[in-house]
Amino acid sequence: MEYLDFELPIKELEDQLDKCQIIGIESNVDVTNTCKQIEKKLEETKKKIYKNLTAWQRVQLSRHPNRPYTMDHIRALCGETFLELFGDRNFKDDKAMVGGLGKIGGQSFMVIGQQKGYNTKTRQFRNFGMANPEGYRKALRLMKMAEKFNIPVLTLIDTPGAYPGLEAEERGQGEAIARNIFEMCRLKTPIISVIVGEGASGGALGIGVGDRVLMMENTWYSVISPESCSSILWKSWEYKEKAAEALKLTSTDMKKQNLVDEIIPEPLGGAHYDRETAFKNVQEYVLAAFNQIKDLSTTDLIDQRMNKYSRMGEFKE
What we know:
By secondary structure, the protein is an alpha/beta fold. Helix content is about 50%, strand content about 15%. It has helices spanning about 10-25, 30-50, 55-60, 70-80, 120-125, 135-150, 165-170, 175-185, 200-205, 225-235, 240-245, 250-255, 275-295, 300-310; strands at about 85, 95-105, 105-115, 155-160, 190-200, 210-215, 220, 260-265. Strands 1, 2, 3, 4, 5, 6, 7 and 8 form an eight-stranded mixed sheet that branches. α1 packs antiparallel against α2 and α3 (about 55-60) crosses α11 (about 240-245). The model has no long low-confidence stretch (mean pLDDT about 95).
């Protein structure tokens, strides 16, 4: 397990607990009471830290190297029923964007999402979860296929943004994202979007227009990352924590502003501490969201979706 800066008190107590147990085994001394005291202090410390997280700390948790990524969620939700589909039928297959058919709780879904890598090699292979235009065009192709066969769409969002490289711009990155937003607004099948990690800028929104948008508890969703915001406003990354607070990018902030519909709770410490519980919660909320919209007519579904996004940004003086 890797630890973030603010998690170091937890690491110290866990190390103490391990040493205590080893001493008990090696010396045949009864250390049960000591271990229990450390365990109690460890639980109290965890609650104190994780119940009072700052916006920046939640951003850090969303990027935790042990956090489950999109393919982890897909394997947990769909099991062996998942059939991955490839290519945009135009340029090539984008490894940063994955998608395919799978069943969740007996219901078929077209599952689409950004995939990050686990180590240096796979991060390069997946382009750090930053999709090129062909990735968004692949996603749109799969959504249109789902529409044709009346299959609901589930998108899993986890990206630091769309790839900003010169070649991506040459192939129409902005147009590809804009086209996806336009088409998703009027797609004739239910769409459920879940932010499972980072939800940055148009890269996230390119597959994020949904009838129900859900956020896992320790994720973020914003037009810009705290680091980039800090570098623009203060010409330095040193103010990233201040920028994170100002951007109002946490799941709680998004729910208050009615920009997402539900917050999916995570185990204490984050999804990586108890993956099974995290996957179970995601499945429960996805199926509940689908049951809310599955019986709507196509006209009502699209009307509600359009009204949902039209109301965003309204305010009274």
